[in-house]
Amino acid sequence: xxxxxxxxxxxxxxxxxxxxxxxxxxxxxxxxxxxxxxxxxxxxxxxxxxxxxxxxxxxxxxxxxxxxxxxxxxxxxxxxxxxxxxxxxxxxxxxxxxxxxxxxxxxxxxxxxxxxxxxxxxxxxxxxxxxxxxxxxxxxxxxxxxxxxxxxxxxxxxxxxxxxxxxxxxxxxxxxxxxxxxxxxxxxxxxxxxxxxxxxxxxxxxxxxxxxxxxxxxxxxxxxxxxxxxxxxxxxxxxxxxxxxxxxxxxxxxxxxxxxxxxxxxxxxxxxxxxxxxxxxxxxxxxxxxxxxxxxxxxxxxxxxxxxxxxx
Length: 312
Description:
Blueprint: E1 5-14, E2 17-27, E3 32-36, H1 43-50, E4 58-63, E5 66-67, H2 72-78, E6 79-82, H3 94-104, H4 111-120, H5 136-148, E7 154-158, H6 166-180, E8 185-190, H7 193-196, E9 201-206, E10 209-214, H8 216-220, E11 226-231, H9 235-245, E12 250-254, E13 257-262, H10 265-277, E14 285-289, H11 293-303
Parallel strand pairs: 3-8, 3-9, 6-7, 7-8
Antiparallel strand pairs: 1-2, 1-4, 4-5, 9-10, 11-13, 11-14, 12-13
Helix pairs in contact: 3-5, 5-6
């Protein structure tokens, strides 16, 4: 079975700004692939090029074996695209929005498919409610139903859970997991590293380039050193103390705790506690933890030189 997506040297420039820089990617059929990175990393630009919304400045891509530039019309019939600002019609009901998107995708015998999607997204009890009266999470589920109405083989989701409450995010991910059972390919951009952990493979992007493309487990194995989690008060001051000591690989702040990247935890934990204690900060807990994708991502970004600017 051929790959669902094959990208070689894909580049997009806006005047002097390079948004996506010589990107190489392969996405397998039936895979959930995450494009991960902060604002300005090039995630949205990448997704828009693959959906035919933006024309690449250079490079090539094949979607389902079809040439992105020469066969964009055929590609659009085989994919679904849920953008950051999916255009639901607030004065139409849930049912009417699905009907509208069915017809613009030239699906006219959609009744059974609509029932299936309403049950799948658990929106059936709200089918008569106007879209503008739905919660943020319900709007995203309706947008997904509209994206799936024509049975696409690949769906592109551009930061679909941004601004959605945690409970709705979990519900949305459960729907995506169930969707994978139908062998659909999902390409999802997200700024959330915890979401990336759910993907079969991820591309960690920064400044338009893919720093690494691999499974989450293999990406985590790239961490150099051990991660010590320190729970203490005065996080900002504690971070400055440890950074200024120059004795550690990295110091990363996460809410009410620090992740200190060290060479040898057994040796360095007492040093950390002594440095903080001498400044009147007494850690509640210091322990070795497994590296997260966020640890690795921050570390990789820190190693990179600062190239030319990008935009999302």
